Automatic annotation (TrEMBL):
Species, as recorded: Culter alburnus
InterPro entries: Ig-like_dom, Ig-like_dom_sf, Ig-like_fold, Ig_sub, Ig_sub2, Ig_V-set, IgSF_V-set/TM_domain
PROSITE patterns documented for this protein: IG_LIKE
Annotated Pfam families: V-set
Protein name: Ig-like domain-containing protein
Length: 614
């Protein structure tokens, strides 16, 4: 057992060393690659004196025993020995301060004879000598075996927006030490403000732990999640690792100079990963032309198209300037508006999935076709045109660059439209007039059958039929004379179509429509009621037959003036009124007599009771 005074001295020394100088360096050995930089941080703590401490570095080579070589010092410019003097003067070997008590030795390009034990010494500024004033670490310089090659250099020829890009780099390292390799694809942009010193972009990388990480700028994260950018690692010839960058749809902002960077990593004894070698391979320049500059949409035939009713119409939409047709989806639409302008409506479309959809004219789906004839060529065919088909036609093409199957909410990259094609029809002159007649003999009463006649006159040289519509506007008490204005049309109650079909739309009323003669059409209201009163009008539309036997609306139409229907009460109803009034009066008089007698009796009874109490 040690004497107590020895234990006391040991405790006193331990207490003093809690505040003594200590110099620390990273744990070793450290492996670094020849030709690349070395950075050794040295920290001093527990010192007295000024905040800014001086540092001196020595090198003990493996074959020199205890002999040291002065490398560099913060307080003495003449400190470096001959092997380092020129390198220190050139700035290749230097000390960089992180703070007053922390500095690092930087050797910009390691040489094989830089291998050895490096000592960091801090000259004393303390009032007494306590602690350690230096620390050392072994640095091993290993050969540079990092290789990087490419399989193809960009030619510099412009490509069209939406084109696919594939670049390949091969990276390998031959080292006795356990090291990892990371590979990064990047570009230096040449567009806009990014060229002002902030043009370096990291596109995507495989890190030292084989994790794929997209770049943080330029929207590469979203494009990676959408599957538009990918990076794969493969095995190539001779066992080399191949790294393949795929960009499914180039955008104009992808223009620039491309490079591939390989980095060799090693894990130091303290557990930290250190970059020990790096190489960059230039892959060439790329220019991406925007689709807005290259895409053209034309419709054929040019100019005007004049047809007879029933003739076929054929229009073609030609798309060019797309680049690779199998890389981008297209939405092609044929649009139409009236001969004098107006709202543009969709006739038909073929979607990115190849499905053809027709517009509001549902019947046209059986009388036309739209198809893709070849890459960039789409046709619209109407087998039998009618006057309603006349107007201005053009095709609209929406391009989804680089997307073969865009989602329903995916925005189009660009939409281009062709010039208008005017389609006109040579039709026969048609004139039509309509008059309405409401016979009032015998007297129209409620419950009787009401008959209205619509007399139609048509003048045309072509075979024709008439479609008649009956409209009613119920009578309002304050308005006896009513006309059907554009903003106050009557309610459609019945139709007799051009091909003889009857359609009844009335709710509650018993109606029928028929054709009495070649020019006369009849509406009958059975058991007419008060709700059937109002203003009636008939409208006529002329339909003609084309050479193929199909019927079409010529657009000729006429409206009659209105006829006012008023229904008188029936005789039975008139007799019922006095009866109802008489019975009501008799009931009223009887109730009044009974109430009077009862009231008088109650008063007399009340007086008798009062007399008895007295």
């Amino acid at each position: 057992m040690a004497p107590r005074w020895i234990t006391f001295i040991a405790l006193l020394w331990e207490f003093q060393c809690c505040v003594c100088r200590e110099v620390t360096l990273p744990a070793g050995p450290l492996y670094r690659v020849a030709g690349f930089s070395l950075s050794l941080p040295c920290t001093v703590s527990g010192y007295e004196g000024p905040r800014s401490q001086d540092f001196e570095w020595f090198l003990y080579r493996e074959d020199a025993g205890t002999q040291h070589i002065g490398v560099v010092s913060t307080r003495d410019t003449g400190f470096p020995y001959a092997p380092f003097q020129g390198r220190v003067q050139a700035g290749e070997v230097r000390v960089e301060r992180d703070s007053g008590d922390k500095a690092r030795l930087v050797i910009q390009r390691l040489r094989p004879d830089d291998q050895g034990r490096y000592e960091c010494y801090t000259p004393s500024t303390d009032s007494r000598f306590l602690g350690n004033y230096s620390s050392s670490v072994v640095v091993k310089v290993i050969p540079d075996t990092l290789l990087i090659t490419h399989s193809r250099i960009l030619s510099g020829q412009p490509v069209i927006e939406g084109t696919e890009l594939q670049l390949t780099c091969a990276a390998s390292v031959q080292s006795v030490q356990h090291t990892h390799v990371s590979v990064t694809f990047g570009m230096r942009s040449s567009r806009g403000a990014e060229s002002l010193g902030h043009n370096l972009r990291e596109i995507i990388a495989i890190d030292r732990e084989l994790r794929v990480t997209p770049g943080h700028s330029g929207g590469y994260g979203k494009r990676y999640r959408d599957g538009e950018i990918a990076l794969e690692k493969r095995k190539g010839d001779g066992g080399r690792d191949l790294y393949v960058l795929k960009m499914s749809a180039l955008a104009p902002e992808d223009s620039g100079s491309y490079f591939c960077e390989a980095v060799q990593w090693i894990r130091d004894p303290d557990g930290q990963w250190e970059r020990i070698a790096q190489r960059t391979m230039e892959l060439g320049n790329l220019t991406v032309q925007p689709l807005v500059d290259t895409l053209t949409v034309r419709s054929a035939p040019d100019g005007d198209v004049s047809l007879q009713p029933g003739a076929p119409l054929s229009l073609t939409c030609q798309v060019s300037g797309m680049g690779a047709w199998n890389r981008s989806a297209l939405l092609v639409q044929w649009m139409r508006r009236g001969p004098t302008g107006g709202v543009e409506v969709e006739v038909a479309r073929v979607g990115p999935d190849g499905v053809v959809t027709w517009g509001d004219d549902v019947s046209r789906a059986g009388g036309g076709s739209m198809e893709k004839e070849a890459d960039g060529r789409f046709s619209l065919r109407l087998f039998s045109v009618h006057p309603s088909d006349a107007g201005l036609y053009r095709c609209a093409v929406s391009v989804y660059a680089g997307k073969r199957t865009p989602g329903p909410s995916s925005p189009a990259t660009i939409t281009q439209r062709s010039e208008w094609v005017t389609v006109s029809l040579k039709t026969e002159d048609v004139s039509v007039s309509a008059t309405i007649d409401l016979p009032r003999r015998p007297l129209l009463r409620r419950g009787s059958t009401v008959t209205l006649l619509c007399n139609i006159s048509v003048e045309t040289t072509a075979s024709s039929q008439v479609e008649v519509q009956w409209l009613q506007k119920p009578e309002e008490p304050a308005k006896k004379d009513v006309t059907f204005s554009e903003d106050s049309k009557g309610r459609l109650i019945a139709t007799l179509t051009y091909d003889g079909l009857t359609r009844i739309y009335s709710n509650g009323s018993d109606l029928s429509v028929d054709r009495v003669s070649a020019a006369s059409y009849r509406l009958r209201i059975f058991s007419a009621s008060e709700e059937d009163q109002g203003h009636y009008q008939c409208q006529a539309e002329v339909w003609s037959q084309d050479p193929r036997g199909g019927w079409y609306n010529t657009g000729a139409r006429a409206e009659s003036v209105t006829a006012h229907l008023y229904l008188y009460a029936r005789v039975a109803d008139l007799l019922l009124i006095p009866l109802v009034v008489g019975v009501s009066s008799a009931l009223f008089v009887g109730v009044l007599i009974i109430a009077t007698v009862t009231c008088c009796f109650m008063k007399r009874l009340a007086r008798q009771r009062s007399h008895i109490r007295k």
